Structure formats: C-alpha cells, structure tokens
Amino acid sequence: MIDDLTTLQLDQFYPHPPAKVWRALTTPELMDRWLLESAGFEPRVGQEFTLRAKPVAATNFSGLVSCRVLAVVELERLSFSWADPQAATPTGWVLTWDLHPEGRGTRLVLTHSGFDPDDPTQQLSRTIMGGGWPRVLRDLDAVLA
Length: 145
Fold this sequence. Notes:
single chain; alpha+beta; Alpha-D-Glucose-1,6-Bisphosphate, Chain A, domain 4; seven-stranded antiparallel β-sheet; 3 helices; 7 strands; about 35% strand
C-alpha cells in the first residue's frame, strides 16, 4: 500500500481467473454494475469515455467524469485518466488497474494517483475516494460472483 498524499492504492484478491476479472473491468455493461454508469468505453488506448456519479458539493464535483484510456495490456493492466470536466482546475488523476495471477485467482491492485498534496479540496477528494474505492471493489466482487 502506498501511503502518501498523492496516491491511493488498494489491493484485493478475487478467487477468479484473470480473464474473468479482465472481462468485468473492460465490458461496459459490467462496469455499469460495479463502477459507474459509463458511456463510450472501449479498452483501446486513446479512447475517450465518460462516467456518471452523484455530485459531491463539498468538493464541487459535478458528478461527471471524463476519461481517456492511457494503457491496455490485456489481462494485466488498464489505465485511464479521471477528471471532472466542470472543475475549476484540472485534477490530473489517473486510475490504474493491475491484475496479477495468484494461484487460481487474481490479485487486483487499484492505484488512484495524481492528488495534489497542497490542495485541500483534492485532499478531501482523496479522503472521500479512499472510503469509496473499497465499496467499489466489493461491488466488483459481487459482479464476479
């Protein structure tokens, strides 16, 4: 686990093979069930897509997330940018999902990076997301089951 103010990292084991976890990470209909409602996602570098969530007044989050796929290594890594297009200042956040085969299952490491350690709003966002990502990983587990 990375313990700094710029990054959140979570590590979760799933008793499912990497192909099944990868499918849940990269299939829009499945993403909608465990992450957020998505539009336009394809696991292709450069692909732009959006996610929709509930707005968060405390951080001025609009509820809309603009993303661009940054890396795709089938069965190993998916990475994309994560930004509120209505934010006063860009966040520069990146989500990276790394899959590691482990026995008959998969260890998934989620890294959410790019938080500004000197920006109180980004640090509040980091705290809120630090509480939200474990729920998302539990929701992913339910989809995989």
